[in-house]
Description:
Blueprint (H helix, E strand, L loop, with lengths): L12 E2 L3 E5 L7 H7 L2 H4 L11 H13 L4 E7 L4 E12 L4 E8 L9 H15 L5 E7 L3 H8 L4 E12 L2 E11 H8 L1
Parallel strand pairs: 5-6
Antiparallel strand pairs: 1-2, 2-3, 3-4, 4-5, 6-8, 7-8
Amino acid sequence: MGMSEKRKWFPCIQGDRILLREVCLADVNDRYLGWMNDPKVTKYTESRFLPNDMEKLKEDVRQKLDNRNIFFLAIIRKDTDRHIGNIKLGPIDWNHLLADVGVMIGDIDSWGQGCATEAIGLLACYAFQELNLHKLTAGYYAANKGSEKAFLNNGFRVEGVRKRHRICEGEYMDTVILGLLKEEWQNGKS
């Protein structure tokens, strides 16, 4: 794919335990709304500052789906065929061939089972092999050990720490900045 060619369509990608497909408006249901209004789920996200309702969530999904530089994907457990969270690639900077990755497992029963790790791995493979991106970036609140483990398990490296950068439960917390270069990812696969 050329730098100026912006791909919108995303295939369904099968992993061992999960699959990734584009989020659709039908995914924005009462369960999804419940995730986005659950303080345990949104504890380390910026969405916790905004009250969510069904129309607002549907509009957010519409905007992401209309943005040709964002892949907004549903994480589906294969054993239950259940939507358990989302992963986002983008916005993609086609000039520099890089993009940010963000992941959220909304289904608390699926926490600690490696679903985020597998989703990040599947998305990284797609980003590097199909989109020919050069680098992926990510960030997490320092106390979010689940995100830390999921990204580090996929070869992301800490590139920096923004000291006392975000507020979480009334306290300032560091934000950890991560990166993964295509060649590091390829070397980790061999």
